[in-house]
Amino acid sequence: MESFESVNTNNGSSVKKNWWWGTKGKGYQVPGPSRSSSSGRRSSDEIIPDELIVLDDSSLCNVPLELPTGVSRDTASKSFSKLTREDQMLSLRLNSVQDSMFKKAPRQSTDALLDPGPVSKEKQAVLSVGRPSWLPPKSKAEEKQHLREFEQIRKAALNYDKQSQKEKFKQMERQRKKNQYLVQLWDRYIFRYWPDSLASSKVTGVWREGIPSRVRGKAWQKIIGNHLQLDYQSFFLACERARKLGYSNENEQTQNVNMFCHDRSALEVDLESTIPQLHLFQKGEALHNDLVQLVLAYSAYRYNVRYVPGTSFIGALLLLNMNLTSAFNSMVNLLDRPFMQAVYTQDKEALASFTSLFLSSLKKSLPDLANHFKYTLQAQPDQYLYPLLQKFFIPMNSVDISSRIMDCYLLEEDPFLIQVLVALFSQLKPKLLDTDFRLMQNTLFYHPWKLGEEDEFMKKVFETSIS
């Protein structure tokens, strides 16, 4: 029972008052045992504010005309006898209220903006649902016709939903059968005759369509290889080196660092933006500790530093498809390639030929955007090209497209990334043509990309020419 405190104006004393509600045809409930009764008490959803009455605990005793279940008449009589003469007369007057006072006219469930006024009595019997009160009422024939039309529309919508569900299930079944066929093809032919199977044009076509997620990790490990001859213990040795490096003093770290900073906030920022839609790599999530171990072990193994900025994105993509030790071996071998080393060390001389080929391809495919970058924004390639390569298009991209890009990159190698860049800029062209340099950076590095369906985007990538 809800209550509130009020102050008596006569003597200033605090009087506790209670809200009591009436039930139709049953008067008002008695305090005490009647509150636990389920048959005599109205639920909170049925309370009508007009029926609420505030009475003092010292003078409240209302004898109901029909007692709720569990309340005896003797209890009500005793409570009634304790009242003063004036309170007894008040209680009798309350119980003599007619039921018509509690009856509410049926409410019209219409929009208040369309029908703000009350419904007239003349229209109450013929007014339709959603009919504004200022319009004349519909005739019976018109009402029946509209109801038939509404029923037809409802059935048509239900049929459309059923057909859509059927088409969706059919598409899912076709995709399931296709994936099953591709998995068998990879297991029985491509893996079995590896690496000779890579020379087949059919395998190249199948590879470009995307590796099934079930065998993607195995395919990546095979295509990346292990030219550094790493074994199972390599990861744990690298973790131990990273642990010791973390406890070393700042002077020793400065001597071992070339161009990578030791600010641990760089790792934290990268982790927060690493495939955020999956909620797997952020702090407190399932794969957070594995990713931290992976990138720190790689940094300690390869560069003798605590963290190489940007490597968390590729590490996360590898962890989604293989275990921790396999991801470490694949990551070390993949980023040991000359092009990847140049990207993560920001070696502009080593990337000069790649940058020149990209700029010429961008000018051929998107001349207005190339001129906009060069003359309007005066943006250098290291301001937008190298950060995209370091993040490997992962933070603002969907997982499916990012995995598909990795599939094809491992097969097509470095020039394929130019096709991806030109296709990406083509999709983001309307936003990239903004005259504000900061808005261009926000589009490329902070706002999620909407590249459409995976197959459609990859089709545009392969249609892009390199010159």
From TrEMBL:
Rab-GAP TBC domain segment(s):
210-413
Membrane-crossing segments per the record: none
Q: Mind telling me which PROSITE patterns this protein's record contains?
A: TBC_RABGAP (PS50086)
**Polar residues bias: where?**
1-15
Which residue ranges are recorded for the region named Disordered?
Answer: 1-44
Could you cite one Gene Ontology molecular function of this protein?
small GTPase binding
Task: Extract the Pfam families matched here.
Answer: RabGAP-TBC (PF00566)
Q: Where is the composition biased (Low complexity)?
A: 16-41
**In terms of domain of life, where is this protein from?**
Eukaryota
Against PANTHER family, the record matches this protein to:
GTPASE ACTIVATING PROTEIN AND CENTROSOME-ASSOCIATED, ISOFORM B, RAB GTPASE-ACTIVATING PROTEIN 1-LIKE
State what protein this is by name.
Answer: GTPase activating protein
Q: Which organism is it from?
A: Schizosaccharomyces cryophilus (strain OY26 / ATCC MYA-4695 / CBS 11777 / NBRC 106824 / NRRL Y48691)
Upper lineage is: Eukaryota, Fungi, Dikarya, Ascomycota, Taphrinomycotina
